[in-house]
Amino acid sequence: MKLPVVPDAERDLVINEMFGPTFQGEGPSTGRYARFIRLFGCHISCVWCDSAQTHDQRRYDLAAEQRIVSIEDVLSWLSGGPAGLVVITGGEPLLQPRVVERLVNAIRERQLATDIEIETSGTIAPTALIASAVTRFNVSPKLAHSRLRRHQRIRPTVLKDLTASGKASWKFVAQDVDDLDEIQELVSTYDLHPVWVMPEGTDSTTVLARMRVLADPVLAHGWNLSTRLHTLLWENDRGR
Fold first, then answer.
1. Is there a binding annotation on residue 132?
2. What residues form the membrane-spanning segments (predicted)?
3. 0.85 cut: is pTM over it?
4. 23 is in an annotated binding site
5. What domains, with CATH codes, occur in the chain?
6. Any known ligand binding at 51?
7. What's the confidence (pLDDT) of residue 183?
């Protein structure tokens, strides 16, 4: 009988997919040349999640959606093209802190990226080593329309830790104008800046329609508006 392979927490990442070069599609680095490392696993499950293949066993064969990749193999892949933005996303990448520490520090040491971003839900605090090595955390606290309970999606201590890092940008997924009141409450309570509001949607028609509805109210709040560039270009194709 073939035994399952167990990842080494110091050396191996559990990955869903690696892809690029492409463009960063969201947030403050939208449009930048980028490579993506999507880690497997998530401890929360938003109803509209656009990467449910990383954790939702009801819709996906999770055994087929994950693979164990060594840090050295990831670094070899990154070395195959010009250094640009590297985005570590998920799922929730901070579920694998020890190996992510080693990965981001190795990327820095070998100069395989000009910048490193981590996409996170803001529910797990980064380690000091991760925070020192990355350029930015794109933090996306979930709103009520995710259908998660508040204690699942809003962790005050974690939000404070990310703010204290000085490297957090806050990216809120909104479906309509009413969501902006909830965003304002979180921004005011936890002093979250800078703020990006991004329309929820996995097709270009929905993204554009919601951007048009949100644009003027977001301006009135003095916040930034993010598109989903990859969706406008390639709809819901994976690996783009």
1. no
2. none
3. yes
4. yes
5. 12-197 (3.20.20.70)
6. yes
7. 98
Give the type of residue at 25: G
Known binding residue 48? Answer is yes
Q: Is 50 annotated as a binding residue?
A: yes
Tell whether 89 is in a known binding site.
yes
165 is in an annotated binding site: no
Q: Is 42 within any annotated ligand binding site?
A: yes
115 annotated binding-site participant: no
